[in-house]
Amino acid sequence: MQKFIPFYKSKNSNTSLDTFKSQLMSNSEYECRVKVNQRCLIDKMLSRYSTKFAVFRELLQNSDDATSSSVEIVFDSTKGENYSRLLFKNNGMNFREQDWDRLKKIAEGNPDEQKIGAFGVGFYSVFSVCEEPFVSSGNSGMAFYWQGDQLYVRHGPIKNSDSTWTTFLMDMRNPLKLPNLDEFCRFLTTSLGFTTNLRQISVYFNENELLNISKEIIGHPRSIKINSNINRESPEKLFKLESVNIHNVKFEVITTPRTVSYRNHEKKRVSVCFQIASGNLKVQIQRKFSSEMERLTKKKPPSKTTIQAILPIYSRSSDMTFDIFKDLLPYPEQGNIFIGFRTHQTTSYSVNFAARVIPTVERESIDFAEKTLSVYNTEMLCSIGALCRVLYEDEMNQISQLYQHKSDENQLMLEECSVRILNHFTFEQSTPDVKVGNIIESQFYRCCSSQLSILSTHGVKPINLIRLPNPEMTAFIKTTPVVPKIMMDHCESFFSRANSILKLIEQISINDVFKELKNRILDVDEMIALMKWWITRNFSITDHNNFMQLATVNIENKVLHLKNIRHFQNPGIINPGLDVPSNVLPYAISQHFNNKLDIFKQNFRNWTEISLVTWTRYIVGKYNFKNNPAFAEEFISTLSRGFKNAKKEDQFAICQLLSKIECIPTQFGVKRPSKTYFSDVTLFSDLPNISIKGDEKFFTEIGINKYVELEVVFARLVNSENLDHMKLLKYFAKFSEDLKDSDIEKLKKANIWIKECTDSNKSVNNVQRYLARDLYTPCYHNKELELPIINWKGHWNKYSNEAKFIIGLGLQEYPSIQTIFQLAEQSQPLELREKSLQYFIKNFKEKYFKIYNANLVHIKFLPCINDIYAKPSECYSNPHCKKMGFNVLRQDLCFLAKEIGVKKYPDYNLLQDKLVKNLPNMDNAKEIFEFMYFATHESNSNCKVLQNIKFIPIQEKVSPYKIIYHKPDECFFKVFNENYVDIFKCVDFGETANKFLKDCGVKQEPSTLDLAEYLIKSSREFWSKLNNKDSYTNILGTIAHNYEYLNKIKPGILDTMKRCPILLGIKKEVDISGTTADVYELACAEDIFINDNDKYRNIFNPLICPFTDRIEKFYEVLGSQSLDANVSTTTQHIAKEMTSIISHKVNEKILERVPWYYSGIKGGDLKNDISWIETLQVKQTDQINMNYVLIPKHEIKTNQISACVSENGNRLILYITNENYTDIANALVQRIHRRPERQHCTNLYLYLTSSIEQLHQLGYPTENICVNIKNVKIDELPNPPEPIKQLSTDEFENMLLEGITSCKSNYNRSIPTNNNPVETFMTEEKYYDSPLIYVKTINYIELHIKDTLDPSIILFPTATMEGNIQKFINVLVNVAEIFELPRNKINIFYDDDSTMVAFNRNKTLFFNLKCDIDHGRPFNKNIVYWFFTFCHELAHNFISPHNADFVYYLQSYANKYFSKLTDKIGHQSTYNQLVS
């Protein structure tokens, strides 16, 4: 096949295309004109003119280009406030022919390079308001009209009476509302800002003038010198700024209010003056660039052009607030770029600029999209930046000249003027195009080689020489030029940008400070300000050293260098007026830091506060105090004030200095400190007292005596004076705080004080004196208690200093607790005893409570009943304590019993001793037990300690009615059977007394443990007293139901019970009359058998357990054995065994009927499953003897029987002597059941002897269910998995049910390979990995086939295969109904090459049709087979591997649902018979 080559890639493609084009162009008959839908074109153009008043903007621009000086706008209305016609007139140059020609052409702009129009679409903005405009100019006119979507014109001469005006007539499509006059006036005023020729605009509504706006050039323009350091050329040298001139302009607006009558209202007139700066640019464009410009704009670039800026005229009184002029003078907002008229592009400065940049079509934005136009416009904007710099520097030059002759008022005016200038040229991001502002600002700074000039505190200087001010430094920075405050406040944005972004100006620095300090000496105020600033900063060590070296201050006409200062003065310690060393910072400076003296240490590293000891050395070394007591007093007062805050070593040094000199002024002159006393030490008149007030501690430390030494006092007292003890007391009390501890101890041991009531005849010298602690205060209560009282002169006031002092020496205020006890004991007079006791009671809480301890009181001071005195621990407050012989506190004192430690009841040990030593009798037991209840509950005592003490009296009911005492654990309050009343000890002493006995251990009634222990001890006695089987049985039943609990609370009790004859056994006996009756006996468990074989019981008549269920289980626990298990049998048949007609008949009967019997068995009583029946042989013999041996008793019995089952090697043989189905049934039941019963024999006998019709009428299953169910294991299940052991039976059955409900549907999905089935069932294959394909669904059951087989085997089966499928579905549905499994969760698959029976894929069950076809089992056998297959696969829902846990689940399902299987087989067999 030939490879395809695109045409445009073929070798001759270019040649071929050129040929095709030439052929087409050479034939003119194919030519046609491209048609333009002019209406759509104009509409699309107008969509670009979305600006408000766009029509007026374009017409005003055209008027200015036509050299018009005046414009009239007339809104014509015939009705109401809306206008329907608009006239726009200008007095410019009349239209020339080429102008008319261009007017009717779209997109053919004005070729004049000095004109604004470039695109030739501005006029067509009139179509935004009208359909058919008309233009008249001179004596010609042009009418526009539409024909369909095409625009046509008619142009020709007209008779025009007013040919000086060019008029645009526009009839509105719909009447329009007159524009907002304020907004319209603002637009027109702004539009007039940069017009070259246009000077006046008038607006009329019909004939009424609404607005008149005029612009007037005032005076002659001023030329600005362009400094040589300014680069006049733009970066790409397209433009060069040739010159700049400024002329003043006056705008005036006259408005007439629009009301009902326009004529009667006064016109409003506002005006403003400003400057228009014009920069004249020389255009230097290369020819190639010019050609590209001409191609793009359809006009040549101009050879020269002008850029303009509007600047305000600065005057402090000028008003720039008129809203009409806001767009002309936008300060403080950004100005706009004017391209003839105002655009929405801002300039980034607060100045409007006009420039002939090339706009976009809608003339609102500057064109940066086209590369050539972008270069042109960028260069033009750079020229605007240069013009801004020229204008700015011109303003600063004017300010600089005025600064030379400044006054305070002029200074403020210059600063305000500088603020205005800076704010006008402060950059802000322009919008919508940020590039515009960035270009202008960049060129503003880049065009000049010198730094920007600004006004500083020292005139106009380059900005890099000026610093941003720091208010904290203003007070001491005088020679460094900084930005004036008003400029910082109002030009924050400029200086922030200049500092952080443009890096033009810096903050004032430490080097500027050093320069200031180097150049001049500061005065005191400047130095204070400098230091306050310095301490707020964290400078380096180098800066600190420079600062200390340079800083000097003039103070009191002396120059002080900070580097010589070492200390500063604390006025709180040393008075400012006192003399200090020369290296201390003058107080004139430091006083301004009084609250922050620590800052000197932190910020002036080698300065420290002058210490008191340093100053003391300076003063002591310089002055003599002997002749100058006034200075000495001031000096000592200063030291006194600061001494306590001085260091310990400084205090010591000061004391050493002062102790050696005479420096303390007294009434006897200036003395050494050790020779003087405090001013209030007046014990003797010749003591020199100090006259200075100050810190007593300081005076004491330097050696001034605060009191007269005790040795002096004692010496004067002994030698001659013998002062009055009260006078001495007052003296000592006065100076008590200054006495040393040793002095106090001396006073405590001194016999100074006199007792009251001393013999008045004795002289003072002969009066006996006592220690203070031996006397009591002169109070009433001390006198009442006859205690020794101090002789006190005057009124006693314990709060006085004298009283406090002597009490401190030991004078007792009240008797001690031991003294009170001694005064209150029984040996004292009765009156004194009562007074003492009442005083103790009254003052107990206040004076004695904290020190009182009842256990430590050994004096019997408490009166009890019967005039006995006792210690607190020997008496009690409850009067009932007397019943048991205890002391009882006198009742009027019981209210205080708890506080003084008298208990309500005796301790439990005392109560127990009393109870045991004085056992209660039947008369007082109730009273004593009631008292014991309250006493023991009061103390929360544990009465269980009494449970082994015999103290409960019980009187015998028979003579001699002896009282016997019993332990609590032997007694009960009641028994549950009145027959037990005489057996158990029952007591009742009333409700309260019984509560005490209950606490001691008396039980409400005998517990199971009590019953068990009683039987262990006295079972035969109990049986003999009762001789009542039912009562004894009740006890055994109680114990049997709680034996596990008994063994738990008392381990080993079951072992004891095994050895004791506590169990009832029953046997049959024949009395004299020959009547057989049951006889009950007590025996040990090992002597009693569990009756699980009535036959053996009849043979041996042993003692058997007369009970079933729980009590029988209890007998087994204690050791009773199975009767059946303890009887061995041996058979002996006489004559030869043979197969006879009878044996054959019996064999067939067994094979037919015994399975029916098996199917009706419920529960787990089976001894062997049905499999043994299939191998059972039946033989007939003449006679059968059966030997029975009761093994534990060694008893042997022999009986003749007609049937028995014996094992002969590996064979089971039923021997019979005749067709006696009673014995046959009995023999078979012994093999089938663990515990054969009479009913079992009866049922089996019915199966063997009744006809099918009779069995059917009786409701027995009679269908043929002789199936092979060898796999059915009905024996006990294996041990369950560990998690199952924790579940109850109900919980486990719910788990099995959840295993069924968790089975999933397959949902018509095919089975891919590696589908991870679980292990398979009953096959040589362990896993099934073959892919299966879904074929169809029958009766909600999905059918699948192996992927290598033809699906039509299932999809379109043969008749035989159809029958096989239906038969298999019928079997599976019946089995599923047994498990209540929905049909849609059963899946059939067909694989003729696999022995697989079934598999479980993620809880989805699959069963093999091929397996069912191959086996061909009868229906009943088939149901059984697939029943166990279901059990197998359901077990896999819990566990995958075939292990012991798996078998447990499988057999659990088989056991649970086997009864339903048998029911299903019976019903289904009947159904199948009817069908067949």
Automatic annotation (TrEMBL):
Pfam families: DUF3684 (PF12449), SACS (PF25794). InterPro entries: DUF3684, HATPase_C_sf, SACS/Nov_dom. Residues 42-140 form the Sacsin/Nov domain. NCBIfam families: P_loop_sacsin. This is Putative hatpase domain protein. It comes from Gigaspora margarita.
